[in-house]
Amino acid sequence: MRVRSERSGGHGELPPLRRNSRFQMLWMGAAASELGTTLTWVAFPLLILAVTGSAALAGLVGACRITANLLFSLPAGAWVDRWDRRRILIAAEVVRCLALAALAAAVLTGRVALWQIVAVAVVTGAADSFFGPARAAAIRAVVAPGQLPEAYAREEARGHAASLAGPPLGGFLFGLGRALPFAVDALTYLVSLVCVVRARVPRRPAEAAERRETGMRADVMEAAGWLWRHRGLRAGLAFALVANLAANALLLPVIVMVEARGGDAAATGVVLAGLGLGGLLGATLSARIGRLLPPGRLMLAVVGFFALAVCATALPFGPYWPVVPLFLAMVAAPALNVVLRVLLARLVPDAMTGRVVSVFTLATMGLTPVGPLLGGLLAQYAGGAGALVAVGGLLAAGCAVAAISPALRGLDVPATAGSAPSAVPVLAELGREPVSER
Asked: Which among 27, 196, 378, 397 has the fewest CB atoms less than 10 Å away?
């Protein structure tokens, strides 16, 4: 069977990951799509600020996208484990491509309204909830278990490279024409669609036929029960809930602070590119950093340092100063993501991948819809610098409380290997919707 041969390589040594054509197709499609994401990562709040002049409304739109993703996440995970995963990936890319193309057309004609922006945010958020678990299962299906750490490191490098290039390019394109970033994002979804088709993703797990005899509620509860029984993961979920709330509140305060210090849209893109540069360096160092501490302690250390860096962005050193602390904050984050993905890869069975990814997403992102709204309100009434100090303080307080948990401090990778991945990042990046992989 071809699927098995590509994952196991038959007898003997595994072929290098670069020769796995299906993984390479998935990687290239995600690279294009992630670049589009980071373009609109900056362009969306800039567009809303231009249309409404309100940072709070910009935060509300971001909250709408995350809320839609969370509302659909549990049924989406169950359906991914039941339905044709290849068709789910294709349908999600078609929906997102059309939504962004429609928004670009509305902006180009000068008739864009707030309700249209909200509608696109909701539609793409819902599509994200299906695409993320399906892509997680696809990676698990086409990559051999022994090569998952390398595959995840490449996934991290891809995302951070896009974060490096996307924000300044998004700010530049928005300066040329408000519709351009959204048109380019629609094009990247089209590229991703072609790559998904060429990747020939396996359609469903072997246990899917048996799974259809049970109810969806029972399927979701099975995955939730699996996570609940792992005390270390349970403590990590609670910690990640607070960390992701704070991380999703940061984008608007940074934009407001840069503008208040005299920076333009291009300066905002350069500042946010510090995240991508730090993450790209961190991805190359992820293996070394990941060996320094077990996952639980590494999580505490990374989030604690991230909190200090967020507070440091508020220092009054000009509009470009935040590049430095944001760069440093992201160096360790890829190692944490890789280690935690490998941890779950050794625990979750294939037939439960979609549901566990969705339950994990909901458990860690339950408060994230409040994040953009909180960041917008803080930026509007306390200023960008004041908002960043407040959010950094929230992260530090959460880290101090989490450090008390022996279950979190003892969270470690088991000695025996299993066979399934997770695609859910525990530490959100600044301003990104960390609800799933695109």
From this structure: 397
